[in-house]
UniProtKB/TrEMBL annotation:
Cleavable signal peptide: none
Superkingdom of this protein's organism: Bacteria
GO CC annotation: toxin-antitoxin complex
InterPro entries: HepT-like, HepT-like_sf, HepT_RNase_toxin
Protein name as catalogued: Nucleotidyltransferase
Keywords for the protein's UniProt record, in alphabetical order: Hydrolase, Nuclease, Nucleotide-binding, Phosphoprotein, Toxin-antitoxin system
Keyword hit for rRNA-binding: no
Family: Belongs to the HepT RNase toxin family.
GO molecular function, one term: RNA nuclease activity
A Pfam family hit: HepT-like
Amino acid sequence: MSRRLSLYLTDIINSIEKIQNYTANLTYENLCEDDKTLDAVVHNLLIIGEATKQIPNSVRIKYSQIEWKQIAGLRDVIAHSYFSINSKLVWDIIQTKLDPLQSCIQQILETENLENY
């Protein structure tokens, strides 16, 4: 069963918000020491990547400022090479990538006619 685009976009927003809540007031060292939080963050990055893979090419092209391929690629690394997840990369994503992604996804949700998807 296929889902609507708006649901995938909402999944991305929800996962970003969860990561932000989990990591609020944490340092990199705190994150590395807290296996449960790190696992929760990685799980939500996996969800973001999987939802990203469902975004149609027409939307990806229109919003080319989003690193669609890299987000989907991270999902593949988490799913297939889970034993080599780089916590510094995860921290960098939390610190530098989630806010801009959230803004762009929110813009898509607010401005696009998603009825055709």
